[in-house]
Structure formats: structure tokens, C-alpha cells
């Protein structure tokens, strides 16, 4: 995890400075981009105390990126929203919960930093003022505006967990090409059926998948299969149950569409006197032949939702986003356990949903007791 150090007797522009922040990465290297940012803030007149606050915000942000295994160039709005929810979940049941205001302050610091990186050429095509940018902002005379850094009123409506029928509704609005559409729908199924994050879906390999014979046998015996998730938040390995029907559907994709994509890349590489090696990911990029980028997957889900809204299939309130598939999974698990009267449902759900603690499930629970969630009312 990244950590922050503070100077005791540094000299900056001939001034002796105490507690000027210096962020070190998990490898104990100086995080130079943040340091340059702090220097720039000081040149613009920011107080040393304010820079220290920004440092505490950014070390948290950098630590979360390290936990999730992503680079700054891969940040997008869905990830920022999940990060905000993570901040709000901390401390529940042990100490006073982080407030919406505090989460907004951290996100403001992060988004200002991302905009500074974009403006100074450290990143490109990540932060901007139109829909082509993964992090969409507006720059005004009074500062940068972003929907996640608005302080929410206590009575403001919480975004609803996506229902199963909402998730089904976006599938026809994914990529138009049949091969890309099949891949898109299957990736959604993996996210909704196992509660996988974007990074975890994109990191799945063929070697992890149970074989077709096992899937057939499990179907006959009405049993689940299991898969080892080896790329996950926090770097832990998890053994999770999965449907044999999903396994069969995935093998159909591998032996059909995916095989065609691999052949296309092999022919393209031969034509250009290059070597192409099948990366073994279940889901491979049509353009580059490597694994699908998690940000691209998130963007595809967001784009499909917007298209479904424009087609009047969904409303703005019936929002579906990539991490929302995980929200649906967690809520569905808890509701089933509640219906069956299983004791200590939260503890069981924590194991199945791969949360570090029961408290960490807090942001996912707003629809646990909502009778309308299953379409019953």
C-alpha cells in the first residue's frame, strides 16, 4: 500500500517547511507525479496546510489503485463511483462512518489531480468535458464540476440497485456486430452471475474454466461448479461457485467466436511478419488481440444503458452500470438467504461475495428489504 511521509525540516523556495507531503508507492518509490502536483499547487499560492490535506487524500487514492491493480490512465467514472462507495463504507460498526462531505472532498482532490495530469500531458484522453472521456467534467470560472463531488443532501435519493430485467434490457444495445455482441452479453452474465468486478472479468483465462464434460455432469446432477478467481481486489485468491450453464455458454463462445478472432489475429500477424501468441484470456480484444480493457468494458455497459434510455426501454432512474452488476449479485444473495431463514446471512453473503468484512457490504444493502426488487410489487 502507498504511504505518506511528511518533511520535518525541508527548504522550499528558501522557506523552512514542516509537514510537506511526500507519497511513497507500495514499492517505496517516490510518487513523482503527486510531488510535482504539490509543487505546482504551492507555486499557485496554496497553503502548506492545504497541500498536506491534499496529500492525505491522494495517498488514499493511490492505495486504492494499487489494491485494484489499475493505472491512472484506466480510471473512469464507474471506478470513481465505486471508490466513493468504498470511502463511505469504512468504519461502519467500529467508528463513526465517513460522511458524504468527506467522500466528496477526497473525490474533489482526486479529480483536480487527474485534470492537472491531463493538462500537463502526463495522461491523455482520460479527463475532459465531453462524453468521449472516461472521466467527464466541466471547467468553469469557479472550478471543476463533476457529478461525484456534489455533496448529497441527507434526503437525496440513492441510486437503485439494477434489477435483473434492467440488466437484460441493455444487452441488445451493446456492440452491433454479432461477434462483439455475443462477447458483451457473456461478459455481463459473468458480472451478474458471480458479482465479478470489471478487472476480474477481463482477467479470466481459459485454464481457469471447468471443462465441458464437468459442466454436462453438473447439469445432470443439478450441482454447481467452482472456479478459482486469481486476479481480484486485494490480490486474494477466491474459490467461487458458478452455474454449469454459464460454463457451457462460455465454451460455446470459446469454440466459436473466440476461435475466429484468434485466427484473424494470426493471419494479420503473418501478413505483417509479426508473431501473435494467444493470450489465453477468455475475452480477447478484437482490435489488439490481448485481453479486453476493464475500462472499455465499463464504457460499453454505460453506452448500452444510455442507448436503452434513448430507446425508451429504460428510464434514467433504472440505471445499469458495470459495478452495478455486483450490487445486483450481493442484493440477490442476501434476499435469498433472508427468504430461506438462514441464520447469520451477512456472514455467509460476505464469503460468497468476497468482501473483507460484513461492514464493507454497507453500500450494497439499500435494496435488501425492498419488495419491489424482485418485481413482486
UniProtKB/TrEMBL annotation:
Keyword line: DNA integration, DNA recombination, DNA-binding
Keyword DNA-binding among record annotations: yes
Example GO BP: DNA recombination
Keyword DNA-binding: yes
Domain Tyr recombinase stretches: 157-377
Gene3D superfamilies, per database record: 1.10.150.130, Intergrase catalytic core
InterPro entries tied to this protein: DNA_brk_join_enz, Integrase-like_cat_sf, Integrase_catalytic, Integrase_recombinase_N, Tyrosine_recombinase_XerCD
GO molecular function, one term: DNA binding
Annotated protein name in UniProt: Tyr recombinase domain-containing protein
Taxonomic lineage from the root: Bacteria, Pseudomonadati, Pseudomonadota, Gammaproteobacteria, Chromatiales
Amino acid at each position: 500500500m502507498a504511504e505518506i511521509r511528511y518533511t520535518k525540516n525541508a527548504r522550499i523556495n528558501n522557506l523552512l517547511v514542516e509537514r510537506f507531503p511526500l507519497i511513497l508507492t507500495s514499492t517505496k518509490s517516490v510518487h513523482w507525479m503527486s510531488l510535482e502536483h504539490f509543487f505546482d499547487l504551492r507555486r499557485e499560492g496554496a497553503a502548506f496546510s492545504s497541500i498536506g490535506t491534499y496529500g492525505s487524500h491522494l495517498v488514499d487514492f493511490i492505495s486504492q489503485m494499487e489494491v485494484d491493480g489499475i493505472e491512472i490512465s484506466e480510471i473512469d467514472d464507474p471506478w470513481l463511483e465505486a471508490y466513493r462507495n468504498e470511502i463511505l463504507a469504512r468504519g461502519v460498526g467500529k467508528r463513526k462512518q465517513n460522511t458524504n462531505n468527506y467522500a466528496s472532498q477526497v473525490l474533489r482532490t482526486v479529480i483536480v489531480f487527474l485534470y492537472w495530469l491531463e493538462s500537463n500531458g502526463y495522461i491523455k484522453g482520460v479527463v475532459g468535458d465531453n462524453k468521449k472521456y472516461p472521466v467527464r467534467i466541466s471547467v468553469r470560472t469557479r472550478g471543476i464540476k463533476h457529478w461525484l463531488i456534489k455533496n448529497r443532501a441527507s434526503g437525496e435519493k440513492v441510486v437503485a440497485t439494477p434489477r435483473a430485467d434492467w440488466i437484460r434490457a441493455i444487452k441488445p444495445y451493446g456492440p452491433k456486430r454479432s461477434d462483439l455482441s455475443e462477447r458483451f452479453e457473456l461478459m455481463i452474465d459473468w458480472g451478474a452471475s458471480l458479482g465479478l468486478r470489471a478487472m476480474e472479468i477481463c482477467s479470466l483465462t481459459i485454464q481457469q474454466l471447468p471443462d465441458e464434460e464437468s459442466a454436462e455432469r453438473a447439469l445432470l446432477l443439478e450441482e454447481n461448479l467452482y472456479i478459482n478467481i486469481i486476479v481480484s481486489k486485494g490480490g486474494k485468491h477466491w474459490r467461487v461457485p458458478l452455474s454449469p450453464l454459464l460454463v457451457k455458454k462460455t465454451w460455446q463462445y470459446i469454440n466459436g467466436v473466440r476461435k475466429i478472432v484468434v485466427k484473424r489475429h494470426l493471419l494479420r500477424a503473418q501478413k505483417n511478419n509479426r508473431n501473435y501468441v494467444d493470450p489465453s484470456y477468455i475475452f480477447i480484444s478484437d482490435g489488439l488481440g490481448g485481453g479486453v480493457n476493464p475500462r472499455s468494458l465499463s464504457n460499453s455497459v454505460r453506452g448500452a444503458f444510455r442507448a436503452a434510455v434513448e430507446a425508451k426501454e429504460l428510464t434514467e432512474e433504472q440505471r445499469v452500470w458495470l459495478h452495478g452488476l455486483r450490487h445486483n449479485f450481493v442484493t440477490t444473495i442476501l434476499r435469498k438467504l433472508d427468504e430461506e431463514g438462514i441464520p447469520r446471512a451477512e456472514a455467509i453473503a460476505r464469503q460468497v461475495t468476497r468482501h473483507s468484512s460484513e461492514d464493507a457490504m454497507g453500500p450494497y444493502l439499500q435494496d435488501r428489504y425492498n419488495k419491489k426488487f424482485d418485481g413482486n410489487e
